[in-house]
Design goal:
Layout (H helix, E strand, L loop, with lengths): L12 E5 L14 E6 L2 H15 L1 H10 E5 L16
Antiparallel strand pairs: 1-2, 1-3
Helix pairs in contact: 1-2
């Protein structure tokens, strides 16, 4: 008999913004969550739209101060416990 195995599929990306007085070396857990997306394409598209709305002078700053990260980086999956035998 094979041991139980668990497959946990999580998805989604979080658009994160660096704190105003922070720097890029801060851990991502200290950044602020702006939004959540189902795909990397949707997250990057929102990031580009943020740059477009801020104007050319702030576009580089927005690019440097925002990141799309997998949700698992901030919210690690809970590993279900194995069923207990009686």
């Amino acid at each position: 008999m094979r041991p139980h195995s668990w497959t946990l599929l999580l998805g989604g990306l979080l658009l994160m913004k660096m704190p105003p007085q922070g720097d890029a070396s801060l851990p991502i857990s200290r950044w602020r969550q702006v939004a959540a997306y189902d795909s990397a394409v949707a997250c990057e598209k929102a990031r580009i739209e943020m740059m477009d709305t801020r104007g050319p002078e702030d576009a580089d700053s927005t690019l440097l101060h925002t990141r799309c990260v997998p949700a698992e980086h901030l919210y690690p999956p809970a590993i279900p416990s194995a069923p207990r035998s009686k």
